[in-house]
Specification:
Strand content: under 5%
Largest sheet: none
Distance between the termini: 35 Å
Structural class: mainly alpha
Number of helices: 5
Length: about 140
């Protein structure tokens, strides 16, 4: 059972970050109703619902197929950075609560994406090293 679990995760170090990423996406999607700015920022409401659903969806994809979705981790950095800028780009004169919620949630998503991306790069290097070792060993046994 342990071998199967290790094979499925493929050495994925950041499996515990899928939950916080999902919760951050859920918060972003629900923040217009949590912070009550649906009436004065209608365009930002639609934006946050779409972006929150996309972030939460990526977290679910990361959980479902961890070895195939390492590359998408960097998208979280871009999405988080966009969430930080969105109150001023998409919204119109956001109040303090609106921009603080977007800035904090966006920064959290960007940092989690950065951690996931860095772990993905490290895992890719580890896979290349073990792949080279395995091919070298099979080559030595054949000769």
């Amino acid at each position: 059972m342990r071998a199967r679990y290790a094979r499925v995760l493929g050495g994925r170090d950041v499996a515990l970050l899928d939950g916080p990423i999902f919760l951050a996406g859920l918060f972003i999607a629900l923040s217009p109703w949590i912070l009550h700015y649906t009436a004065n920022q209608p365009v930002l409401v639609v934006h946050n619902v779409i972006m929150g659903a996309a972030i939460a969806g990526l977290a679910l994809v990361f959980s479902a197929t961890p070895t195939r979705t390492y590359g998408f981790s960097w998208a979280l950095c871009l999405m988080g950075a966009w969430m930080v800028a969105a109150p001023w780009v998409v919204g119109s004169s956001p109040d303090r609560g609106v921009f603080l919620s977007n800035v904090i949630a966006g920064a959290l998503v960007a940092v989690l994406g950065l951690i996931c991306g860095a772990a993905a790069m490290r895992a890719g290097r580890m896979r290349n090293r073990t792949g080279r070792r395995a091919s070298e060993m099979s080559h030595q046994t054949q000769t």
